[in-house]
Specification:
Elements (H helix, E strand, L loop, with lengths): L2 H7 L11 H19 L7 H14 L5 H13 L1 H8 L9 H18 L8 H21 L6 H21 L5 H8 L3 H12 L32 H11 L4 H12 L4 H8 L3 H17 L6
């Protein structure tokens, strides 16, 4: 029987190419997973060993080959849990966890492309700082809508970590003095970091606030009263008016508060319009100079 006949008997069209060590290891893990499903048990998968074998295979393959891309994709897939572990450190940043994981995956890919197995360093040890650095850059450059000094951004990471540890230790949210004592930094720096940690997004003045009954922040802000500038003037005029004799004070009130004309005032007080005009001129002159009334 020819080779093709033997292959046809096996249900294939030709001889199968030998599998690479990485593909063999993946196949063995899949077979173990199938056995686990059938037996109801679970065999722990040594991700470190699988990562090491895949990197060994990666160094043997020429760049830009399909097999190298498959091995690289397998490295990314099996190390995603490392990215998720790094992303949990930023769960208090009010950003969707999936977005943080995507950013961390970029750091993982960069770490895979730069990693040198010949240096004798475990890949997770090398990759974790790269992943964390990529996530931190994302928060520094893309998330904040308000500028925060770099020193406070870096210190905020330490403050946030100390808050988590103290919360677990004391079973409550730590106070500022406790955080400062833990990190051995001034309390003023802790307060500044707490303010900086909240300064990721600028709230719109027109956005409705649920806890305020749907009112926008703009609806609850005060406005500038144009009459405020006249408060001191009004108080000064009131002080001068009380020094006027009754008749002159009444003339001022009728002219400027009741808006009567000089002719109407003369009829009201029983004097000529000319006399009212002379009295108004004298009164206003006294008020402008701030002098007390003298007969």
């Amino acid at each position: 029987m020819s080779v093709r006949t033997q292959d046809s008997a096996r249900g294939t069209d030709g001889p199968q190419a030998p599998r690479s060590p990485a593909e063999s290891l993946v196949a063995d893990l899949r077979a173990a997973e199938m056995r686990d499903r059938q037996s109801g048990t679970r065999t722990p998968v040594d991700v470190r060993t699988l990562t090491r074998v895949l990197f060994e295979r990666l160094t043997e393959l020429a760049p830009d080959t399909p097999e190298r891309e498959r091995v690289r994709a397998a490295l990314i897939e099996i190390n995603i849990p490392l990215v998720r572990y790094a992303a949990t450190r930023f769960r208090s940043r009010n950003e969707p966890m999936e977005d943080i994981v995507q950013v961390g995956t970029i750091g993982l890919i960069n770490a895979i492309d730069r990693f040198d197995p010949g240096r004798g360093v475990q890949f997770p040890t090398y990759a974790l700082p790269t992943i964390l650095g990529e996530i931190k850059r994302y928060f520094r450059d893309n998330v904040r809508t308000m500028h925060v000094p770099r020193r406070l951004q870096e210190l905020w990471v330490q403050v946030s970590g100390a808050m988590e540890e103290l919360t677990v230790t004391h079973g409550r949210t730590p106070k500022v003095p406790e955080i400062a004592a833990s990190l051995r930094i001034p309390e003023e720096d802790v307060r500044a970091c707490l303010d900086a940690g909240r300064a990721y997004n600028a709230a719109s003045l027109e956005a409705a606030q649920e806890h305020e009954g749907g009112l926008a922040l703009l609806d609850r802000l005060g406005y500038e009263d144009s009459a405020l500038a006249d408060v001191e003037h009004r108080d000064m005029v009131r002080h001068l008016l009380v020094q006027l004799p009754e008749r002159e004070r009444r003339i001022i009130m009728l002219r400027f508060f009741a808006n009567l004309t000089q002719s109407q005032i003369s009829t009201e007080l029983g004097m000529s319009q000319m006399h009212v005009s002379r009295l108004l001129s004298r009164i206003l002159n006294r008020l402008r100079t701030g002098n007390t009334w003298e007969e």
